[in-house]
Specification:
The protein has ten helices and 13 strands. By secondary structure, the protein is an alpha/beta fold. The protein folds into two domains: 118 residues, Beta-Lactamase (2-Layer Sandwich), CATH 3.30.450; 211 residues, P-loop containing nucleotide triphosphate hydrolases (Rossmann fold), CATH 3.40.50.300. Helix 1 crosses helix 2 and helix 6 packs parallel to helix 7. The radius of gyration is 21 Å and the shape is globular.
Length: 341
């Protein structure tokens, strides 16, 4: 794991002790993710397996609250049952932590409050490659991934793998689309490996997940929950464009950052990568536009989606089939009417 990925402040005895009851579950190398929906039980999802329940009497509301408060203090976030009882953080070792507690969580109809927690395990020894997503050199042609489109953008190869790698190396903007747990960020990390090493890369995320081995890099974090300052995506991205990046990696596109990223795209900074929750390349553009309309409901759909389609050089679609993560499309978006139709 790269040095920049670690959060040094988290590595202390207080947090280590608080995490002991949970660590035995998420630190297993066969585990992909754990979830807690109710005290006393943990659901564990092993790699290429289904969720399986396990009795865990040591997992109490008191434990979860203690972990959340310690993490909030160490990551300079506000965590308050009467305010914002939501926490996003990175645990020691790079594991992704997400929790919601209190009256916003109801397990049964009679509940008045509850807990919801997920920890997705990060394995620093596992290096993912494009072929882990069934995308290999010389195997899948462009026609096989998207037969019904006539693309206007330049293709670097007739094969999907070579075309995508060529697009990344030439500085095309890439949007990675897929449902939850399809491995969008994992694929993004694999794709970063193809960015030329002489490029300057700046990442902007709400939780540190993108791994960059390039020497000239900066990682910026914007909390999706209340923190100690008022810095948001708009402030950070305004600063980023003045830091002369060759590539900007924005992490996941959401309601929170869509407006700022869209403004970035309309001011000439088109060399970037991002992920989004969607079921197809067309729906990825629509999802981006729908995130934009949360703050600007009168935004013209055709104009906005047209800008998005022109800005992204490639949209990569990831699906999950029989437990395997598979690339089903490497699309060069051009036909806006298909998105609006």
């Amino acid at each position: 794991m790269s040095e920049g990925f670690s959060v040094t402040a988290l590595d202390n005895e207080l947090l280590t002790n608080a995490l002991i009851p949970l660590k035995k579950w998420y630190d297993d190398p066969t585990t992909e993710e754990i979830a807690i929906n109710n005290p006393g039980m943990i659901f564990v999802k092993a790699v290429r397996d289904i969720w399986r329940p396990h009795e865990a009497p040591e997992v109490t509301v008191k434990l979860i609250m203690a972990v959340c408060r310690i993490l909030a203090n160490l990551t300079d976030q506000t965590f308050d049952l009467d305010g914002i009882p939501i926490l996003s953080a990175t645990l020691p070792g790079g594991h992704r932590f997400q929790a919601v507690v209190g009256p916003n969580v109801r397990y049964d109809l009679s509940d008045t409050q509850g807990i919801a927690l997920c920890i997705r395990r990060f394995d620093p020894n596992k290096k993912y490659r494009l072929d882990d997503f069934n995308l290999r050199p010389g195997e899948k042609t462009i026609e096989e991934t998207k037969q019904e489109h006539t693309h206007e953008k330049h293709r670097y190869s007739g094969f999907a793998y070579e075309d995508l790698v060529g697009a990344v190396q030439q500085g095309e903007a890439v949007l990675i689309s897929g449902a939850t747990a399809t491995g969008k960020t994992t694929f993004l990390n694999a794709l970063v490996e193809y960015i030329p090493l002489d490029r300057r890369i700046i990442t902007v995320e709400d939780t540190r997940e993108v791994i960059v081995k390039h020497q000239n890099r900066v990682h910026l974090v914007v909390s999706r929950t209340a923190g100690a300052n008022k810095i948001g995506y708009s402030h950070v991205l305004d600063a980023v464009v003045r830091m002369t990046p060759d590539v900007i990696i924005c992490g996941e596109i959401s309601v929170t950052n869509a407006k700022s990223i869209y403004r970035l795209m309309t001011t000439g900074h088109s060399n970037f990568m991002a992920t989004i929750h969607a079921e197809s390349p067309e729906m990825a553009l629509r999802a981006f536009w729908q995130n934009l309309t949360q703050e600007n409901p009168n935004l013209d759909a055709a104009a906005a989606i047209g800008i998005l389609a022109r800005s992204f050089g490639r949209i990569v679609q990831i699906d999950r089939s029989s437990g395997e993560r598979v690339i089903t499309a490497v699309d060069a978006p051009s036909l806006v009417h298909e998105v609006l139709g």
